[in-house]
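TA notes, week 10

Several of you asked for a full example with nothing omitted. So below is the full record: structure tokens for the whole chain, then the designed sequence directly under it. When grading your own attempts, check the secondary structure regions first.
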């Protein structure tokens, strides 16, 4: 049995639901699942449909990390039957741009599927104007990429409600995240902070799409999913640190830019060419150990994530 098969078997063991499992056993399995996500990652085939029963292994892991159980398919169908929501036009425009050039994604997730899910979400939340925010299309897309439509809807709703409630309430958590990134830059890399200050550059100007999407705007999606795995396991607050990690890794390139703005939004959205393993390693080994305790509390709280 190869390494990939061994890893797959370990995930399947931890995800297996045994009858009569005591709460301690369930909690222990969840803790081990999180550790496996962080230290080993998921197998390369984890996003493939059929890699775990009829669904994908990654989708099954996400549901376990979110505590998603039985899905009420009829409830989702009823929401869909209500038709276009008050935010339909905004949703349709954003969906047309969401991973539109990502062939693997578009071959599995038709635009109308993402439109249905987002409209159903607005209906679920009272069909009030401005319920939908632009970042939601990029955040919802990976769930549909990995799960059936009803599973994706429920999982995404739980994700928004419990993991990033302040990110999807007038972006207040996203603005906090941008301000925190600025504080972190000033504390951890005063020279880079000063370089940005010379051009009056703040994270809201160059990192807002990255922070609001928890890094999911960086392609390829298959690589960025690895960072969302870790955020689902250990907290959505890590998203802003991963965005900072990309800056730290690109520091040399940024500092060499002369006579013009050293960074633009597009630079962040391309991830500077660094992959998830590089970003994860930099963040965990170089950034987090340097953050003082008071500031790290701000980092942990800024998304509004609900406690266990």
């Amino acid at each position: 049995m190869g390494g990939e098969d061994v890893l797959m078997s370990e995930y399947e063991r931890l995800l297996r639901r045994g009858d009569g499992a005591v709460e301690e056993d369930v909690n222990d399995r969840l803790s081990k699942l999180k550790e496996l996500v962080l230290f080993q990652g998921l197998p390369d085939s984890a996003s493939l449909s059929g890699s775990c029963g009829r669904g994908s292994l990654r989708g099954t892991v996400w549901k376990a990390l979110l505590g998603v159980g039985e899905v009420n398919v009829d409830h989702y169908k009823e929401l869909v039957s209500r038709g276009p929501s008050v935010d339909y036009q905004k949703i349709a425009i954003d969906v047309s741009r969401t991973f539109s050039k990502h062939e693997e994604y578009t071959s599995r997730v038709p635009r109308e599927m993402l439109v249905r899910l987002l409209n159903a979400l607005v209906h679920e939340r009272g069909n009030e104007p401005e319920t939908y925010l632009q970042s939601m299309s990029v955040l919802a897309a990976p769930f549909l990429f990995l799960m059936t439509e009803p599973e994706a809807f429920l999982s995404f709703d739980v994700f928004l409600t419990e993991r990033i409630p302040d990110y999807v309430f007038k972006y207040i958590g996203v603005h906090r995240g941008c301000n925190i990134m600025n504080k972190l830059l000033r504390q951890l890399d005063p020279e880079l902070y000063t370089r940005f200050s010379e051009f009056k550059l703040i994270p809201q100007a160059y990192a807002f799409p990255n922070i609001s999407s928890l890094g999911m705007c960086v392609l390829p999606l298959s690589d960025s999913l690895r960072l969302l795995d870790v955020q689902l396991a250990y907290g959505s607050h890590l998203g802003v640190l991963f965005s900072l990690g990309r800056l730290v890794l690109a520091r040399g390139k940024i500092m060499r830019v002369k006579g013009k703005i050293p960074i633009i939004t597009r630079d962040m959205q391309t991830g500077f060419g660094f992959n998830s393993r590089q970003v994860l390693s930099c963040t965990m080994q170089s950034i987090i150990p340097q953050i003082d305790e008071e500031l790290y509390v701000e980092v942990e709280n800024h998304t509004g994530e609900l406690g266990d």
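The two ends are 37 Å apart (CA to CA). Use that as a sanity check on your answer.
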